[in-house]
């Protein structure tokens, strides 16, 4: 399914043998598109706001973002991330490579 939403902008900051660190910038209404994480990861918000997570089976939930307050998720997570707010939001994602 093709979405008419704008795309979130990923900027890879580090990609080495241990981690992939990406800054994600979301304009209002922007989305990542459906994806599955191949690594455990930590998200560190750099703005306050919220994200809407679309998950398999039609589940949707809105999670708050607090600047500087990280959260962790395990590998295998499949979802689409959307900015449901009327302002820009951003976070840094650190994927932890096995090895």
What report would you give on this structure?
The protein has 99 residues and is mainly beta. The protein has a single domain, classed as Jelly Rolls (Sandwich). Helices cover 0% and strands 54% of the residues. The protein has a five-stranded antiparallel beta sheet, with no helix packed on it. A four-stranded antiparallel beta sheet has the order 3-8-5-6, with no helix packed on it. It is globular, with a radius of gyration of 13 Å. The N and C termini lie far apart (35 Å). The mean pLDDT is 95.
Radius of gyration: 13 Å
The domain tally reads: 1
Strands side by side in the biggest sheet: 1-2-9-4-7
Number of helices: 0
SSE pattern, N- to C-terminal:
EEEEEEEEE
Structural class determined from secondary elements: mainly beta
Mean pLDDT: 95
How does the major sheet shape up? 5 strands, antiparallel
